[in-house]
Amino acid sequence: MPLHLKESEIIERAALLPAFPTVVNEILETLDDENAAMGALINLVERDPVITARVLSIANAAVMAGRTQRDLRDMQVAVSLIGLSKLREIVLAVSLAKFSRESGMGSHFWEHSIAVGVAAQELSRIGHCSRDFALVCGLLHDIGQLWMARCHPLEFQMVRMSMEQAPDLDILDAEIWHFGLDHCTIGRLLATAWHLPASVISAIQHHHDAHPPADKLIAVTHLGEAVVNALNIERHNHASVRHVSATACDVLGIDWRDDFNFLFGRIEARSRNLTRIFS
């Protein structure tokens, strides 16, 4: 029998999920102050041995690429080598990958999230908006599905079966039939409960809209998922955006008649690389 969930139930049952990584909010809060961000990020990294190991590994790879024989162990030097932007990317990706795994989602969920995060980042270059916010929006855009799978796994599988039996069925319609709410609405409620910035909440809520609000972060998230679907970067996702919003294109100044082969190549290459690094 289909569920008829209320919004209050979403928040109550969110306790079944692992604790949302506070490092995400801590990073977003420091974006406007590069000097504060450096010291704060290094402190965050050094508190987590997994992230520390990943940062040092990538920094050492950069050293080896320069043909310098050196076992790098100093975090300050490591950050100076890989850069602040790359450091934020590592911290965000590792933290959210861990959150996804602890929530019980398969690797396909994380592969798709990384691909959309990368696509949103690359599109943010065109739209001149924050790369870090774009990455977070892409990584978290389908967070409502994670709640569905953890809290109501049977209904979650029924949605998947419905999509397989009727390939033209829209994912949101299937979810509303089985849950009473779609993953965009559930994602908005979770992101609000986690005190994420309003811009990130809006991107999560509206990334499937045919006519989304005219906002750059919504646009890069919406188009990022559409591009990932078109490039067929990962083949397990049923929640792909099946249309391209004209509003989103206008907001970013994108005309698809232009040559985007270089952009698509970067998205595909970076997605596969990050998936390999953070898996």
Descriptive overview:
With 279 residues, the chain is mainly α. It has one domain (7-278): Orthogonal Bundle (Hypothetical protein af1432). It is built from 16 helices and no strands. Helix 6 packs antiparallel against helix 7 and helix 6 packs parallel to helix 8 (131-140). The chain is globular and about 55 Å long. The mean pLDDT is 85. Residues 17-210 form the HDOD domain. Pfam families: HDOD. This is HDOD domain-containing protein.
For the largest beta-sheet, the strand count, sense and barrel status come to: none
**What's the tally of helices?**
16
Task: Estimate the global geometry from the Cα principal axes.
Answer: globular
By CATH, the architecture is named: Orthogonal Bundle
CATH class value: Mainly Alpha
Structure class:
mainly alpha
Strand proportion: under 5%
User: Topology as H/E string?
Assistant: HHHHHHHHHHHHHHHH
The mean pLDDT is 85
* Rg for CA atoms: 19 Å
Per DSSP E runs of 2 or more residues, the count of β-strands stands at 0
Helical content (DSSP H or I, runs of 4+):
over 70%
Q: How many domains comprise the coordinates? A: 1
Quote the distance from N terminus to C terminus.
36 Å
What name does CATH use for the topology? Answer: Hypothetical protein af1432
How would you describe the oligomerization state of the chains in this entry?
A: single chain
Question: Can you identify the CATH superfamily?
Answer: Hypothetical protein af1432
Organism: Azonexus hydrophilus
InterPro entries: HDIG_dom, HDOD, RNase_Y/CdgJ
Protein name: HDOD domain-containing protein
Pfam family, one: HDOD
